[in-house]
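User: Hi! I have a protein structure encoded as tokens and I'd like to know what sequence might fold into it. I'm fairly new to this, so please keep things simple.
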């Protein structure tokens, strides 16, 4: 599993337990046990004499996701983040930055810009997308430069950072009618 946001690893399975370390978004953990909302974990990337498998402790299950789900779950932590051209943080992010930062958090290097992301990912036939795939948009339609990207999270549902319209912040929504004619490709990293 991976952390979907920065979160504490605690000495015990309770919110008031001492924090012993932290996980960063995308950091991998091994899960060994569950107690209510808490998972007993080790953090392989944080070596410790306390446990040969990595730093031990307890993390909230809600702050972790299975590897195959983690990129979308990390992207969801940006919901409500303002659109900022060239942004890569929770203070402000753009559409391709959302894709780049989410994949980067799990150790997958992808290009920074939407048109480069479209050119380097594995093409997926429109209509056969699955959660975690990307939709690519071009204002001029097929054959023109890709100008927008977002995650497919369910059939017909887009998680993205719109740069125009009434919402200029990260949203997860049914594919807007105004975006449909500009949807030109889908892809997968």
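Assistant: Happy to help. Inverse folding works backwards from shape to sequence: for each of the 189 positions I chose a residue that suits the local structure. Here it is:
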């Amino acid at each position: 599993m991976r952390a979907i946001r920065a979160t504490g690893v605690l000495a015990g399975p309770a919110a008031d337990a001492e924090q012993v370390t932290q996980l960063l978004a995308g950091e991998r953990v091994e899960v060994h046990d569950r107690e209510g909302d808490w998972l007993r974990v080790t953090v392989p990337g944080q070596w410790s004499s306390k446990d040969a498998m990595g730093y031990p402790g307890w993390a909230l299950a809600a702050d972790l996701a299975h590897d195959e789900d983690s990129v979308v779950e990390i992207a969801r932590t940006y919901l409500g983040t303002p659109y900022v051209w060239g942004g890569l943080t929770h203070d402000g992010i753009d559409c391709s930055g959302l894709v780049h930062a989410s994949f980067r958090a799990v150790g997958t290097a992808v290009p920074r810009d939407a048109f480069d992301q479209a050119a380097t990912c594995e093409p997926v036939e429109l209509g056969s997308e699955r959660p975690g795939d990307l939709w690519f948009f071009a204002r001029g339609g097929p054959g023109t430069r890709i100008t927008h990207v977002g995650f497919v999270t369910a059939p017909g549902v887009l998680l993205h950072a719109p740069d125009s319209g009434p919402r200029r912040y990260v949203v997860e929504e049914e594919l807007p009618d105004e975006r449909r004619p500009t949807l030109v490709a889908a892809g997968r990293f």
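A useful reference point when you look it over: Helices lie at 67-76, 95-105, 114-120. Feel free to ask if any position seems puzzling.
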